[in-house]
């Protein structure tokens, strides 16, 4: 227990050291603060030197505007900055740094030297904190600024005990450089480790920079995104579900050029991937959100890695829907002619008979003795069910009982009409017909082990997991059928269900009344800790409604939106689709296989099943040639 002392002002050095505990918690934090200053100064070339994991030395050199000699002392003084001068400027801040704490905090726990040579000055000057005080003297330096930080935490040795190994700390510093490099592709970067060049990033287009740094998004493993709504813009790249990783180390989100870790955004992205992600995988993405500075508060955390949005719910919904719309189109809908050109280009360095056959197929429709691949006319339905008989109305019938739970009680049930079934005539057109469109998944030629459908394309071979593919097709049909209905059937409870809630969530019950009504609930707040459920959706009969409402209120409180009911609904529909889809060892005819392929090409998210597993794979001719060393 501390002894009683009179209240007194803390020494400036101690104040800076306390601030350093928040701002400079490890070497990577030093690198981040110094790089932000370099970018704010307009640097286009930045060199980073890290020795001993950043504990021995961190040196950042840039070619920015520089700091005049008479401002050097202010630069290392706490709460001195050129970024803002008023509250209005703070609310509109667009620079990466603005608090005026970084240099003073870093200098308080290290041997610190800042050298700068601005335009119009006769020579460079440096300021350093040797011998317990600040000294300014002429120095040699290229135009720009160099900050040299040595013996980090020498004045606070206890802090060093909490650091990791030198290798771990170096790669933490390198991650900071990568994050900065992704957001600033017009800047050239050099990184040295213990005196040796470790990595180099030349100025280049943004997409090239992303693919050079993030392998998880390269080689066709990502989709571009660029959407606008009013004053907001979201652009970048989102990884395909197939390229998801076991950890979230390839997730980068920027708000007005600033890298942030925001739980609202993470939740929005995660929920956008819910329908296509397998297990506990983490998607890879690089996303940049631009919006007016007044709509986001960046002055939330000393390290400036957290933000607060003025309209969090709108941002969450928009980001989620934007990513969902990008992920929805299946790769099976890509024009086949574009892929053929890519395949031919890939294999030009390895000429073979198969490549020649592909080119001949494109130009004449046949290739010597090679079989001619023709297009099956599109079928509007999947002509099979679990019993094996042709039944295109199977999906509608399987959903009929489930739809009954969604209909208003005063309206009769209307089941979508069953499409008319007509026998397939001439499934393979004559060789003279060239009017049919090319199909991306090709034409089925065989069923393998009662599980896979083998399809032939002019540029390779496609293997389809028939159960997983049919499962996704039915799942999307079920969701679409329910989404088209205007109301949800609600059931009054004879005895209200009492649900205990956290008092901090009580306000969400009253504020979300319109949302509750829309989803078929009728709630009343009895006290700050108890809610009465007087009506609930019919489809929730037998479910743990208490846990569902608690989770819903928690989501509303944290993110401003809640998708609990939608998630629950989708889980049920996924189960229904799984039990309804064609099973393994069910023998399909060629027309049935082709009907499944055509349905996949028309179905969103058909690259993955309801559980996130892939539904099909393409083996290109070039890839197969490599298996057998053709052309080598």
How would you explain this protein's 3D organization?
- The protein is of the alpha+beta class and 632 residues long.
- The chain has 20 helices and 22 strands.
- The strands form five sheets. An eight-stranded mixed sheet has the order 5-4-3-6-2-1-7-8, with helices on one face. It has a five-stranded mixed sheet with strand order 9-10-13-11-12, sandwiched between helices.
Low-confidence stretches: 336-398, 401-437
N-C termini distance: 79 Å
Overall 3D shape: globular
State the total count of DSSP E strands.
Answer: 22
Helix run count: 20
**Class inferred from helices and paired strands:** alpha+beta
Major sheet: arrangement of strands: 5-4-3-6-2-1-7-8
Strand-residue proportion: 15-25%
Report Rg: 31 Å
pLDDT averaged over residues: 77
Helix content range of the residues, please?
Answer: 25-40%
Main sheet makeup: 8 strands, mixed
Give the key terms:
alpha+beta; five-stranded mixed β-sheet
In terms of topology, how is this protein built?
Elements: H1 12-23, H2 27-40, E1 45-51, E2 57-62, H3 72-75, H4 87-91, H5 102-108, E3 111-117, E4 124-128, E5 135-139, E6 144-150, H6 157-160, H7 166-183, E7 188-193, E8 196-201, H8 206-213, E9 222-229, E10 232-239, E11 251-255, E12 258-259, H9 263-272, E13 285-290, E14 296-297, E15 308-309, H10 312-327, H11 336-346, H12 353-364, H13 394-404, E16 443-448, E17 452-457, E18 460-465, H14 466-483, E19 490-500, H15 506-511, H16 513-518, E20 522-527, E21 530-537, H17 545-559, H18 564-580, H19 590-602, E22 616-620, H20 621-627
Parallel strand pairs: 1-7, 11-13
Antiparallel strand pairs: 1-2, 2-6, 3-4, 3-6, 4-5, 7-8, 9-10, 10-13, 11-12, 14-15, 16-17, 17-18, 18-22, 19-21, 20-21
Helix pairs in contact: 1-5, 2-7, 7-8, 9-10, 13-14, 14-18, 14-19
């Amino acid at each position: 227990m501390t002894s009683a002392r009179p209240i007194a002002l803390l020494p400036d050095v101690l104040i800076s050291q306390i601030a350093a505990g928040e701002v400079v918690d490890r070497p990577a934090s030093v690198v981040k603060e110094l790089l932000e200053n370099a970018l704010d100064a307009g640097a286009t070339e930045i060199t980073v030197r890290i020795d001993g994991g950043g504990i021995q030395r961190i040196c950042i050199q840039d070619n920015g505007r520089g700091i005049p000699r008479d401002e050097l002392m202010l630069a290392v003084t706490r709460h001195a900055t050129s970024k803002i001068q008023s509250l209005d400027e703070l609310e509109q801040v667009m620079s990466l740094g603005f608090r005026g704490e970084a240099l003073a905090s870093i200098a308080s726990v290290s041997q610190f030297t800042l050298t700068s040579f601005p335009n119009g000055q006769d020579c460079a000057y440096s300021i350093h904190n040797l011998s317990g005080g600040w000294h300014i003297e002429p120095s040699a330096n290229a135009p720009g600024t160099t900050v040299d930080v040595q013996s980090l935490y020498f004045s606070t040795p206890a802090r060093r005990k909490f650091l990791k190994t030198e290798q771990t700390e170096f790669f933490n510093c390198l991650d900071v450089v990568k994050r900065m490099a992704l957001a600033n592709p017009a800047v050239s970067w050099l990184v040295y480790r213990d005196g040796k060049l470790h990595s180099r990033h030349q100025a280049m287009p943004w997409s090239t920079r992303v693919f050079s740094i993030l392998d998880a998004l390269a080689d066709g493993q990502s989709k571009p995104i660029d959407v606008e709504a009013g004053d907001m813009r979201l652009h970048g790249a989102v990884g395909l579900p197939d390229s998801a990783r076991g950890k979230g180390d390839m997730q980068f989100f920027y708000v007005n050029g600033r890298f942030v870790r925001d739980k609202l955004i993470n939740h929005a992205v995660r929920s956008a991937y819910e329908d296509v992600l397998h297990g506990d995988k983490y998607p890879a993405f690089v996303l940049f959100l631009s919006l007016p500075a007044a709509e986001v508060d960046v002055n939330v955390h000393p390290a400036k890695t957290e933000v607060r949005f003025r309209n969090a719910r709108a941002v969450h919904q928009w980001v989620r829907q934007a990513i969902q719309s990008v992920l929805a189109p299946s790769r099976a809908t890509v024009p086949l002619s574009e892929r053929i050109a890519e395949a031919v280009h890939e294999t030009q360095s390895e000429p073979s008979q198969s490549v020649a056959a592909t080119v001949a197929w494109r130009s004449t429709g046949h290739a010597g003795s090679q079989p001619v691949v023709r297009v099956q006319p599109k079928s509007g339905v999947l002509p099979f069910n679990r019993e094996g008989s042709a039944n295109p109305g199977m999906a509608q019938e399987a959903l009929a009982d489930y739809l009954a739970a969604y209909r208003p009680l005063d309206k009769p049930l209307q089941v979508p009409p069953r499409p008319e079934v007509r026998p397939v005539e001439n499934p393979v057109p004559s060789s003279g017909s060239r009017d049919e469109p090319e199909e991306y998944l090709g034409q089925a030629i065989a069923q393998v082990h009662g599980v896979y459908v083998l399809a032939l394309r002019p540029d390779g071979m496609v293997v389809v997991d028939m159960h997983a593919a049919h499962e996704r097709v039915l799942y999307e049909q079920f969701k679409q059928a329910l989404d088209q209905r205007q109301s949800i059937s609600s059931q009054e409870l004879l005895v209200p269900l009492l649900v205990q809630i956290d008092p901090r969530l009580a306000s969400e019950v009253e504020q979300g009344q319109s949302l509750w009504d829309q989803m078929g609930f009728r709630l009343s707040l009895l006290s700050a800790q108890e809610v009465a459920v007087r009506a609930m959706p019919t489809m929730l009969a037998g479910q743990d409604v208490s846990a569902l409402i608690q989770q819903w209120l928690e989501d509303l409180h944290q993110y401003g939106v809640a998708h609990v009911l939608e998630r629950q609904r989708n889980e049920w529909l996924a189960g229904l689709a799984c039990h309804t889809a064609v099973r393994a060892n069910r023998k399909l005819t060629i027309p049935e296989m082709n009907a499944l392929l055509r349905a996949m090409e028309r179905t969103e998210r058909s690259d993955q099943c309801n559980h996130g597993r892939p539904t099909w794979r393409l083996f290109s001719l070039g890839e197969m040639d490599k298996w057998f060393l053709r052309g080598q």
